[in-house]
Amino acid sequence: MSRTKILVVALIAGIIGGCTSAPSPRKTLLTVDFKPGQVLKYKFVNTRNMAVDWGPTRSGERSKINKSSESLEMVVSYTPVKVDPYGVSTIRADCESAKAKRTSESARPQNWQEAAEGFAGKSWTFTVDARGKVVDGSGFRDTLLQVGQRAFRADKSKGLIKEPDMLFDVIAMQWFLWDSVSSISNPTKGVAVGDKWKSVLAVPATMVLFAARDVNYTLSEIRVQDPNNRIAVIDSSYSLLWPNPPEWPVPYTEPFQMSGIYGFLRGYKTHDLQGHGQELFNIDAGRTERYSQSYTVHASASLPMGLGGVNPQITIDQNMTMELLAPSVPRK
Questions:
Q1: Tell me: the pLDDT tens digits for 261-280?
Q2: How does pLDDT run across 233-268, given as a tens digit for each residue?
Q3: 121 class by beta-carbon count within 10 Å (0-12 exposed, 13-18 middle, 19+ buried)
Q4: Max Cα separation, the chain?
Q5: Where are the domains of the chain?
Q6: So what's the pLDDT on residue 57?
Q7: How many other C-beta atoms are found inside a 10 Å radius of the C-beta of residue 321?
Q8: Among residues 332, 236, 225, which one has the least CA distance to residue 285?
Q9: pLDDT tens digits for 52-110?
Q10: Which terminal CB of the chain, N or C, has fewer other CB atoms within 10 Å?
């Protein structure tokens, strides 16, 4: 829905309700718009560095810190199937590629296949309104559950054993596409530079932390490339929210045992999360051009029964980016 049409609806509603004052000229409407036949292609990159500090040894010496990293790059195209400027549009998502990398100082070389790479070649449809709020995401949920089966070892004689995966990163990439716009509390009134609003975003991790990000958005500035190419600069800051909302999608529902060091550890507790991000939203095109999100998580864990006395401290540094590949991205 165009900003003009939303503004007309808002003015009519205001008159019917007895409000005679016009919207402040400082306010800017932020809406998600789709054009029939226009395909938007984005590249997503999530990178995570993790460190496990085992604490001092019994002799008082410093233990070695186990470090590992993992990253996932996805290219996804979004094609409007049905555009309704007054209501809900249907969009088809096509994952053109998905490639993961993982390194670890302590892991032995092994044949490893990342489950999230199973999204390559997959398609799903969803519906979204002009605010950028996903109305029906069941297509993505179904695809996620299907791909999620790739995370388990084929031999189930000892129960379900899950390899490390980045499927929660896929959720963070695809479930919150227009969160900065869709979370505005009064979208028809618009926002002005300096305005703030709140939301909640995912915290993907190798282990299951059940943590989320409490988000504070701020419209920091509006960059005018030309009169028909205005860019809203939306800054964000993050803090810890626990637990995460239960309505978010999950990649698997069966009880399982996780392999590797993060399956060996128990009793995860998330203590702190701090970070920030920035998004460039094209006001006139009604689309996100790029975003970057970075944060650090501090957590702890315990060892299995009989191996007490050690309280591993875990640090997770997460970086998430999205960039529009086509149409072209405007320069700063």
A1: 898 898 899 999 999 999 99
A2: 999 999 999 999 989 999 999 888 898 889 889 889
A3: exposed
A4: 77
A5: 3-326
A6: 63
A7: 17
A8: 225
A9: 998 876 666 667 789 999 999 999 999 999 999 779 999 999 999 999 999 975 554 45
A10: C
Question: How many residues are listed for the chain in this entry?
Answer: 332
Which residue, chain included where needed, has tokens 């302590």? 106
The residue type at 187: P
CATH code of the domain occupying 3-326: 2.30.230
Residue in the block written with tokens 């060892």: 303
Omega before 243 within 30 of 0, i.e. cis: yes
pLDDT value of position 266 = 87
Q: Per-residue DSSP letters for 150-184?
A: GGB-S--TT--EEPP--HHHHHHHHTTTTHHHHT-
- Nearest alpha carbon to residue 203 among 193, 195, 211: 211
d(CA 22, CA 160): 60
Which residue reads 């959720």 in tokens?
A: 171
Nearest Cα to Cα of residue 41 among 73, 92, 78: 78
Which residues are registered as beta bridge partners of 197?
Answer: 217
pLDDT tens per residue, range 7-51: 334 433 443 344 444 444 489 999 999 999 999 999 999 999 999
Asked if residue 196 lies in contact with residue 184, where contact means CB atoms within 8 angstroms, the answer is no
Q: How far apart are CA 83 and CA 12, in angstroms?
A: 23
Convert the pLDDT of each residue in 179-211 to its tens digit: 999 999 999 899 999 999 999 999 999 998 999
Torsion of the alpha carbons at 295, 278, 2 and 176, rounded to the nearest 10 = -10
DSSP state of 309: S
DSSP assignment of 207-228 equals: S----EEEEEEEEEEEEEEETT
